[in-house]
Design brief:
By secondary structure, the chain is α/β, with parallel strands linked by helices. The chain is built from 10 helices and 10 strands. It has 2 domains: 175 residues, P-loop containing nucleotide triphosphate hydrolases (Rossmann fold, 3-Layer(aba) Sandwich); 80 residues, no CATH class. The strands form 2 sheets. A 6-stranded mixed beta sheet has the order 6-7-8-3-9-10, with helices on both faces. A 4-stranded antiparallel beta sheet has the order 2-1-4-5. Strand 4 and strand 5 form a beta hairpin.
C-alpha cells in the first residue's frame, strides 16, 4: 500500500475498524480492519459497488442498522466515537460530524417545508430562537448559491429539482458548522453540468469553513480532480492509498484495473480492459497498519 504523509493534527483517526452484518449464512464482513487518518482535507474513497465505501462512511457516524456489529476505534479529536452511547453521540452527529446522502428525495421529510427542516437542524444543535434559526437557514441557502432562498425556504422537497435538493441537503448538513462531513455519492443522480456546480459549491464551503471531507464515489476521474488523497477499497479493505494527483501512478493491480476500465478521450481504445480480481487482495497486507 502506498502511504501519503499523515496530517500533523488529524481530525479523524480510524484504527482497525471492522463492520459485519448478521445473516442466515453467518456474518458478512462489509468493512475489514480499515485504518486511516485525516485532517482538514478532502479524502476520496473509491471502489466498486459492494466494496464497503458507504458502510465505512456510515460507520464513522455510527448510523448503521441494528444487525451490524462494529469493532475498532473511531477517534474524533481524541474521543473514541465507537465507545460512546447513542445518547452521547447526539452531541456529535449534525453538530460536529454530518453526512450528505445520495438522493435528497429519500433524505428530506416530504411533509415539511425545506427551510423549516434546515432551521430545525440548526435549533437542534444550538440555543437559537425560531427567528434566529430562520435567519441562519436563509443565510446557508444563500451560501449554497440558491438564487431565491425565500422561495426555496417555503418549498416542499417535491417542488425542488434534484440539483436544488442536493444543495439543500448540503446546506442542512453544514448549517451547524461541523468539522467533518461525509458525502456519499452526492452527484450520482445529477447530470454532468449540475454535478460540477454542486461540487464547486461544496469545495468553496469546505475551504471557507476549514472542514474535513470524506468524499465517496465510483467516479475515479472526478475524485482525482476534486480530492487531495484517495483511498481505494476492495472487499471491505483499503488496498491502496495515494495522492489524488498521482492516481495514474497507482501500483495495486485492482486500482490499475479500475483505471483501465474507464474510457479515455485522450487514449482511445477499441476494447476496454475487463477488471480481474484476485482472492488474495481481500487478505491483510503484510506490514500494513
Amino acid at each position: 500500500m502506498n502511504h501519503t504523509t499523515p496530517p500533523a493534527d488529524p481530525i479523524l483517526k480510524v484504527d482497525n475498524l471492522s463492520v459485519g452484518y448478521a445473516s442466515h449464512h453467518g456474518t458478512v464482513h462489509a468493512v475489514r480492519d480499515v485504518s486511516f487518518q485525516m485532517g482538514a482535507e478532502k479524502v476520496g474513497i473509491v471502489g466498486e459497488s459492494g466494496s464497503g465505501k458507504s458502510t465505512l462512511g456510515r460507520a464513522l457516524l455510527r448510523i448503521l442498522p441494528r444487525s451490524a456489529t462494529l469493532q475498532g476505534n473511531i477517534w474524533f479529536h481524541g474521543t473514541d466515537l465507537a465507545r460512546l452511547t447513542e445518547k452521547q453521540l447526539r452531541a456529535y452527529r449534525g453538530a460536529r460530524l454530518s453526512m450528505v446522502l445520495q438522493d435528497p428525495k429519500y433524505s428530506l421529510n416530504p411533509l415539511m417545508r425545506v427551510g423549516e427542516q434546515i432551521a430545525e437542524a440548526y435549533r437542534l444543535h444550538s440555543d437559537a430562537s425560531r427567528e434566529q434559526a430562520r435567519e441562519r437557514a436563509m443565510s446557508i441557502l444563500e451560501a449554497v448559491q440558491i438564487r431565491n432562498p425565500a422561495r426555496v425556504y417555503r418549498s416542499y422537497p417535491h417542488e425542488v429539482s434534484g440539483g436544488m435538493g442536493q444543495r439543500v441537503m448540503i446546506a442542512m448538513m453544514l448549517v451547524a458548522e461541523p468539522e467533518l462531513v461525509v458525502a456519499d455519492e452526492i452527484t450520482s443522480a445529477l447530470d454532468a453540468t449540475v454535478s460540477m456546480q454542486v461540487l464547486a459549491i461544496l469545495d468553496d464551503l469546505v475551504r471557507e469553513m476549514g472542514l474535513g471531507l470524506v468524499f465517496i464515489s465510483h467516479d475515479l476521474e472526478l475524485v482525482a480532480t476534486f480530492c487531495e488523497r484517495i483511498l481505494v477499497m476492495y472487499a471491505g479493505r483499503i488496498v491502496e492509498e495515494c495522492r489524488a494527483g498521482e492516481l495514474d501512478q497507482a501500483r495495486h493491480p485492482y486500482t490499475r484495473g479500475l483505471l483501465g476500465s474507464v474510457p479515455r478521450i485522450d487514449r482511445p481504445s477499441r476494447r476496454l480492459a475487463v477488471l480481474e480480481r484476485c482472492p488474495t487482495w481481500a487478505e491483510p497486507t503484510p506490514g500494513a497498519p
